[in-house]
TrEMBL record:
Matches recorded under InterPro entries: ClpP/crotonase-like_dom_sf, Enoyl-CoA_hydra/iso
PANTHER family: ENOYL-COA HYDRATASE, MITOCHONDRIAL, ENOYL-COA HYDRATASE-RELATED
UniProt source species: Streptomyces neyagawaensis
Highest taxon above the source species: Bacteria
Protein name: Enoyl-CoA hydratase/isomerase family protein
Length: 259
């Protein structure tokens, strides 16, 4: 089972866990499908009033698309169209408007931003790090950068996207720029997120969900317009898959700095 969903009926809080710790919770086709199914299940479960999403193992929240399975996703030939297997892994993509809190320990990079970008807020352990490897491996960071540009200042989002694997944003810096709302001791992010979720779940459901929609309405128009440009930017800017694989195979673990 690559995704675990547990629900506490007493508190009204569900815990959704990405469970491929041996792969640093990288997302393959099976996990992507299960994530979509889990969000839709929560959507129709009236006993769930708030959700915490996290990753198993402590080393990573999620490291994006599993590179070993990326070649299995067929792509149309037009630069104006792309089939992104991660587009439907987030709560908003599945029309879930119950509050979602992300709890991050370890690495969160690349495709993890599809989840972080659709959470209401993020809590991170002090050893968490955030980075976007796309440009390093000859890929356009489009969807990810758009989502992050709505969560932190433009310069910070752009720096993360352009610096690739050379630099990782620390939990403390992520808090300073607004990506993270709270930094905890290592391993305590889930507990802190659950405490917040229990508070929110205890409030009247209609008021909470209406507030969620109001907050997202403030930025949805710009987000929707920007996302519409992403497919052909990726199709035009990505290196061929075999060249991406060469760059990925030649990566140097540890060759980065944390700021």
């Amino acid at each position: 089972m690559t995704v675990r969903l547990t629900t506490d009926k007493d508190t009204g809080v569900a815990l959704l866990t990405l469970d491929r710790p041996e792969k640093l919770n990288a997302i393959d086709a099976d996990m992507a499908e299960r994530l979509g199914r889990a969000w839709r299940e929560v959507r129709f479960d009236d006993t769930v009033r708030a959700v915490v999403v996290t990753g198993a193992g402590g080393r990573a929240f999620c490291t994006g698309l599993d590179r070993d399975t990326a070649a299995e996703v067929p792509q149309p030939g037009s630069p104006y169209s792309i089939d992104d297997p991660l587009l439907a892994i987030g709560p908003k993509a599945n029309d879930l408007w119950k509050p979602v809190i992300a709890a991050v320990d370890g690495m969160a990079c690349g495709g993890a931003f599809y989840l972080l970008g659709e959470a209401e807020f993020v809590i991170a352990g002090s050893t968490a790090t955030f980075f976007d490897p796309h440009t390093t491996y000859g890929m356009v960071s489009a969807f990810e950068s758009i989502l992050m540009a709505q969560r932190m200042p433009f310069g910070e989002a752009t720096r993360m996207a352009l610096m690739g694997t050379a630099e990782r944003m620390s939990a403390r810096r992520a808090y300073e720029v607004g990506l993270v709302s709270e930094v905890t001791e290592p391993g305590e992010a889930v507990a802190a997120a659950l405490r917040c979720a229990e508070v929110v779940a205890g409030y009247p459901t209609e008021a909470v969900q209406g507030t969620v929609r109001a907050c997202w309405a403030a930025q949805e128009a710009a987000r929707t317009h920007a996302l519409a440009h992403a497919p052909h930017l990726i199709s035009l800017g990505n290196l061929p898959a075999d060249r991406q694989s060469e760059l990925f195979a030649g990566r140097r673990p540890g060759g980065f700095r944390v700021r």
